[in-house]
Amino acid sequence: MEKLARKQVQALTPYLSARRIGGSGDVWLNANESPFDNEYKTNFTRLNRYSECQPKDLIEAYASYAGVSAEQVLTSRGADEGIELLIRAFCEPNQDAILYCPPTYGMYAISAETIGVERKIVPLTQEWQLDLTAIQAQLDNVKLVFVCSPNNPTGNLIKREDIVALLEMTQDKAIVVMDEAYIDFCPEASTVDLLEQYPNLAILRTMSKAFALAGLRCGFTLANEELINVLLKVIAPYPVPIPVAEIACQALSEAGLARMKYQVLDLSANRAYLQAGLSMLQGVTVYDGWGNYLLIQFPEGDAMFKAAWDNGIILRNSLIKDCVRISIGNRDECEKTLSFIRNQISAIA
């Protein structure tokens, strides 16, 4: 049956998500999930009816949280669907291109390749910032420029002045897509205030991280109303199931937001604990992180990843040489991980 698939799909290597990679253990710090398993209630009525395409209560609740108007919000099945919608809506297959800056999230490239859209790559600088000169030289036929901040997997923030320069550079040419999946851990770094000034800005958000709702698959795209209306032309008729909308609204209620902010503070404290402990180890480099994860460089990254894996501590290997990404879990998980790594480093020394 594979021979019947489109040539791009036949040649495609699927994104290796944490769940596809698998593993077996009792400490799971590989998928940037929240350790908080919050309880929600829904009566599961009206399941015989289709949901609204864009549930009004959910749209208004997230618009209020994000500080935008309801007309500037589109909800989807996670931010991943937002990526796909943007590419489908704005890129002609075998004609247009997207541009992205690795090391970064892998789904930008895979979504484009699946649809038959060219991928242009401009690596981040050694400081993991935008190479604006190189980007400008590659903008021919580019319709979408994807920028992740805080960036996954490096954890750093992209300089605001560079984002503004990119928006200026691409006006009337391309849309800058800011992936803010982790912005709830550093809301002061959001670009949402730039929407008013730049119609070529789109922002991706998710409830998977800080809201501890990875299994709900609820994401958002923020943009000006004209851009949102284009996305509404290509989105599925019923993208958000009724229970998803109800639970998401509970998470966005006054009590839900207070809980989320408390849990973010707890995770930030655990991140600082893990960062301080790892930084004391010989030969280990801990990069500053602004999300719910840290990127760590070890003397032998692959060996450390495998040793942890074999001992039931499931981390995320990285394409960056000798680097491993560690999600921030609860304090017990962070203590177990730090203790294991400390013992491994001591054994090597």
UniProtKB/TrEMBL annotation:
Q: Which residues form the Aminotransferase class I/classII large domain?
A: 41-339
CDD domains according to UniProt: AAT_like
Q: Name one GO molecular function term.
A: transaminase activity
Annotated keywords: Amino-acid biosynthesis, Aminotransferase, Histidine biosynthesis, Pyridoxal phosphate, Transferase
Which superkingdom, per the lineage?
A: Bacteria
Q: What is its EC number?
A: 2.6.1.9
Pathway-wise, it operates in: Amino-acid biosynthesis; L-histidine biosynthesis; L-histidine from 5-phospho-alpha-D-ribose 1-diphosphate: step 7/9
Give me the reactions it catalyses. L-histidinol phosphate + 2-oxoglutarate = 3-(imidazol-4-yl)-2-oxopropyl phosphate + L-glutamate
Q: Name one Pfam family in it.
A: Aminotran_1_2
Q: Which residues form a coiled coil?
A: none
InterPro entries hit by this protein: Aminotrans_II_pyridoxalP_BS, Aminotransferase_I/II_large, HisP_aminotrans, PyrdxlP-dep_Trfase, PyrdxlP-dep_Trfase_major, PyrdxlP-dep_Trfase_small
Q: What class of enzyme is it?
A: transferase
Annotated positions of the N6-(pyridoxal phosphate)lysine modification: K209
| HAMAP family per the UniProt record, alphabetical | HisC_aminotrans_2 (MF_01023)
Kindly give the NCBIfam families that the UniProt entry links to this protein: hisC
As for family, the record states: Belongs to the class-II pyridoxal-phosphate-dependent aminotransferase family. Histidinol-phosphate aminotransferase subfamily.
Q: How does it assemble?
A: Homodimer.
Record protein name field: Histidinol-phosphate aminotransferase
The organism named in the record is: Vibrio algivorus
- State which gene encodes it: hisC_2
